[in-house]
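Methods — Computational structure assignment.
A single polypeptide chain was analysed. Its primary sequence is given first, followed by the predicted tertiary structure written as structure tokens.
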Amino acid sequence: MNHEFTLNQDACHFSEKSCRRNSAHMLPVVDYLSDLPENVQETDFVEVQFKNTRKGYYLNQSHFPLEKGQKVVVGANPGHDLGEVVLTGRLVLVQMKKNHIDMSRYDIRPVLRYPTEKDLHDAEEAHKKEQATMIRARQLAKSLGLEMKIGDVEYQGDGSKAIFYYIADGRVDFRQLIKVYAESFRIRIEMKQIGARQEAGRIGGTGPCGRELCCSTWITNFTSVATGAARLQNISPNPQKLAGQCAKLKCCLNYEVPLYEEAKKLGYSLGNNGTEKMQDKEADLGYQNVVGQDDLTRFDKKRRQRPMRDRRDNRGPRDMQQRDKHRKNNENKKSDTPSAQ
């Protein structure tokens, strides 16, 4: 039992290192307006990033000189948190609009100060507890018989709160689990569900292209991927090749779809009545989703066998002649054989 615990602990330690390394490089926002003097004066909002690419928008009401990569202490509920500034100026408003931030409902919190030595020390001590907390949290969830997996734990900078990232196929009632966690860890608990793509990005890995997974380097906003993207690019509809390490359709199937759609509009073919647009001709073919969105086991279905009577009814004239010939031969053999006395 102790040996199994050691293996899980080492695996979690490796995942934690991978997560911290990946989170530092994920979603790199290129601030191409950073060298303009009037850029920072556009807004006092800044974008701050935490662990697992968690981000928030905070108000620099004290007008601290902030640059990308600067560590800051921001307000939280409760207490405070430690994060890194990733965007300032005019592009923050663009990001807020892109992420559909409703300022009338958004909980706006301030940038409190630059981090002190105590702030950095408290944050480091809190992060050291994440590994042991995650292992214990998995054991407690398993003891309650819940169909879920604790993927990661993130402590707030002051150690007063922890976010438990979990993975589940369906809806999970974790009200009792939160009570057990609060009694065991003596902190405020927040549960946050993540999907298979987010989990693959957190763990990391190398794709069939030989490069590090996109979800573990720069993708954080995952969009739906349909098999129509593969069909448009004339990619073989093989479920094993279309699926990524998360068992979902690969995100990279969407990368070149706009280019193919644009090229498709420029193609023409000669029809019976002069020139005819290729896309109009293909639209009448009635393509159907024969592969399935995420069904990778469609080839496991057994083929339906036709009844014997249907196969007899579909015999051709030649088969009927051979059957009659075979029957006559049998009758002649019976007539030539002397009957028993």
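Note: The first helix runs from residue 2 to 23.
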